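Bumping my old thread because nobody answered last time. Still need a sequence for this structure:
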């Protein structure tokens, strides 16, 4: 099945495993929170137990160095493609209010990005991720 849009995460390639997982979880929550139409129906097992819905299309995870991440972020902003960001500073905070304050304190060009998630037309997302490679 092909989809007209793409959901992609781009992680900085020097993160520890726990950081990669943490950043991925946070940035995709931004996509889910602003694009509920991407979520499928609830899951139900054979016993009738209900589980939360998930994205109805794949989430592709990529990696790249800091320069690749900065360039992808810039292209996403320039193209007005929905983008969630996670910066190094967010590893030092403990709540959403402090997270938002940490991002607000830094100019866009100076954000020390460790991950982003983007959702948009497939071709646009592919152009945004130019230079990134699929996560290994």
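Sorry it took so long. Here it is:
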């Amino acid at each position: 099945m092909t989809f007209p849009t793409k959901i992609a995460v781009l992680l900085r390639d020097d993160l520890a495993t726990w950081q990669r997982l943490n950043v991925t979880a946070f940035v995709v929550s931004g996509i889910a929170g602003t694009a509920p139409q991407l979520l499928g129906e609830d899951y139900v097992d054979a016993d009738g137990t209900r589980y939360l819905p998930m994205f109805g299309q794949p989430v592709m995870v990529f990696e790249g160095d800091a320069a690749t991440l900065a360039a992808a972020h810039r292209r996403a902003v320039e193209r007005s493609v929905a983008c969630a960001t996670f910066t190094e500073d967010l590893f030092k905070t403990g709540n959403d209010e402090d997270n938002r304050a940490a991002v607000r304190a830094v100019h866009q060009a100076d954000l020390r990005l460790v991950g982003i998630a983007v959702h948009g037309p497939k071709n646009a997302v592919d152009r945004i991720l130019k230079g990134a490679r699929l996560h290994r």
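DSSP finds four helices and seven strands in the chain. Let me know if any region looks off to you.
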